[in-house]
Amino acid sequence: MQSTMNRSSTISYSVPVVVLCLAALLLGNILIYLYLDSVYHSNEQLLSPRVGCAPGHFKMATVKNCTPWLQCSQINADVRQLKLIGQGAVKKVYLAEWKGQKVALSKLSSPDYLEDFLHGLSMLQTLQGPQVVQLVGFCLEDHALVTEYHPFGSLLNLDGVLTQERQQQRNTWQMRLTLAIDYISILHYLHNSPAGRRVMCDSSSLEKTLSQFLLTSDFHLVVNDLDALPEVDQSKGLLVKCGHRELTGDFVAPEQLWPFRKKGKPFSDDLMTEYDERTDIWKIPDVTRFLMGRVSGGDLVHFHLFQIHKECKNKVPDLRPSALDVLKVYKSVYSSMVRDNAGFREML
């Protein structure tokens, strides 16, 4: 009888303990879910200090109010050019100052590229949003435009930035995978933009592709160079060719390569077939490989992304996933790895 009572007492005490453990586990999962939800839904606010501004306006991070885009008279009077910080075929980029704020002043490099310059400006105006560098103003007469300045520069500088003593703590798989998610998010936006389905044509190499993106001070990405962003509309038979020269190498998609190269036939732009935005998808694994670097935990990220990356590298363009498909997988991998890390810490 006494033994039976002891067993009943033990069971009665064990039940609340089990319930408490289950409740704690459930609470932990809820907190992780809320954290991840806040990460994904706060990205736009982190990326864009001009949230709430009307079209045709900009907002600096240190200023409360929105300001209309600067026009020629304001740029000439108030924007002070400081030094050259970058140069490409289309634009020269200068560090400049506007009312105590650092900005980037871009000027046309050569009249030969006026069409590209105007196209890039048009895309900047149309595509303003969290994924695109903020337009501050422009002057068509002087072929100049002003954008928000990001001191870390292009994505090419990522590893160099992360070696800085103040930034070393950010060198984690979580931060690097977040940048990869930003990159896929930008592709998804461009492939479904207010200006139609756009292809990143200025991406014939890894280095050239990385140079199209800026690293923000809060470690996110914005696309910066929109000078070569042609539209695809398959319903109208509208496809693209990225330039009029032969592209080579493993980085570009197979459909971008001259198909008669092995036969020794000289390249002819007239005979080159056109293609669509799936060329951007082919390049995703290579960009992500750069973004992940050699950080601890990176190998596990690559393992989880192996299948979707294999699909991105399908030689048949129509069999590649969309940017949204890839984005969903990336976010799922991020969530599951964060949960697994949290569970492991609880066990310790």
Structure, explained:
This protein is α+β, with helices and mostly antiparallel strands. It is 43% helix and 14% strand. It contains ten helices and eleven strands. A five-stranded antiparallel sheet has the order 3-4-5-7-6. A hairpin with a 2-residue loop joins strand 4 and strand 5 (101-108). It is globular. Mean pLDDT is 88; it is low at 32-49.
Strand element count = 11
> Please, what is the average pLDDT?
88
| Contiguous uncertain segments of 5+ residues | 32-49
Overall geometry comes to globular
Q: Keywords, please?
A:
11 strands; 348 residues; five-stranded antiparallel sheet; two-stranded antiparallel ribbon; alpha+beta; single chain; 10 helices
Short note summarizing the structure:
Helices cover 43% and strands 14% of the residues.
Sequence-ordered SSE layout with sheet pairings:
Elements: H1 2-47, E1 57-58, E2 67-68, H2 72-78, E3 79-87, E4 91-98, E5 101-108, H3 114-126, E6 135-139, E7 144-148, H4 158-162, H5 173-191, E8 197-198, H6 206-210, E9 213-215, E10 221-223, E11 231-232, H7 278-282, H8 284-292, H9 298-312, H10 323-347
Antiparallel strand pairs: 1-2, 3-4, 4-5, 5-7, 6-7, 8-11, 9-10
Helix pairs in contact: 1-10, 5-8, 5-10, 8-9, 9-10
